[in-house]
Amino acid sequence: MADAHAHGGGNLVPVLLSFSVFSRPSAVPAGSGYEVLIQKFLSIYGAQIDVHRKFLMQLFSEEWGQFIDLPKGFTISEKCRLRLVPLQTDITALGNLSPATAVFFCCDMQERFRPAIKYFGDIISVGQRLLQGARILGIPVIVSEQYPKGLGSTVQELDLTGAKMVFPKTKFSMVLPEVEATLAEIPGARSVVLFGVETHVCIQQTALDLIGRGFEVHIVADATSSRSMMDRMFALERLARTGIIVTTSESVLLQLVADKEHPKFKEIQNIIKASAPESGLLSKV
To answer: pLDDT tens digits for 180-222?
Structure first.
């Protein structure tokens, strides 16, 4: 396009990025889509943007003389004006969970990880609670296994009865096309409760991919771990800063029933009568 400039061997297209009362000129590579543009907004206005809120990106239309919602599949091809508009905070932005809109992701809880992962026995125990709670409340469960040919299947202690999907992967993120297709088949799915290993690799990449697709993510801190406590704790801190909710298993289960009068409350109460193991979260890094 005539408005693209060659910089360092690549075509950069000038864009005017507006947020709140601010407007700043910038440039992005030709062909950039939504994710690149969001990162550019964050790099410029990060201090002003509340990552806990939802936003709508809009493009200025010369035809209509006003901003319009960014068209699906939009990519930058010529000079343009874009703005980021905060939406009204809704119930999901507040971190609420409901069985009708939640999906559980169990990530790579496999036998070969047992000797290497810190507090693996504890996170298996907590994972058992979560899977039992999901069965009681009728919440879909999606389970991944990282290269099971070499790393083995999910540990026997975890009962996967009724899981909606158990799939092998080599990619670190659980967000593969077949998983996205399964999520699309679950009516109203908008919150993912995520647990497993490793916190700083597969859990982190899965969480970032999910929020990039508009899902709210709850990471169960006492049901996820790494080989290194340093990696585990820094990953949880980083994820919390991106707007992902870092929580505990008991908090998740009680939030899902929400009321002592819930017909399944006593069954959930039986799961949490004994406190969950702290899985090293209270230990020094």
So the answer is: 999 999 988 999 999 999 999 999 999 999 998 889 999 999 9
Of 40, 106, 107, 108, the active-site residue reads 108
pTM: 0.69
Q: Under a CB-based contact definition with an 8 Å cutoff, are residues 180 and 213 in contact?
A: yes
Q: What is the largest CA-CA distance in the chain?
A: 67
Residue 3 a catalytic site member:
no
* 3-state secondary structure string across 249-272: HHHHHHHHHCCCCCCCHHHHHHHH
Q: Is 169 a catalytic residue?
A: yes
Catalytic residue among 107, 202, 209, 231: 202
209 has catalytic annotation: no
Catalytic residue among 106, 169, 222, 231: 169
Kindly report, residue by residue over 121-159, the tens digit of the pLDDT. 999 999 999 999 999 999 999 999 999 999 999 999 999
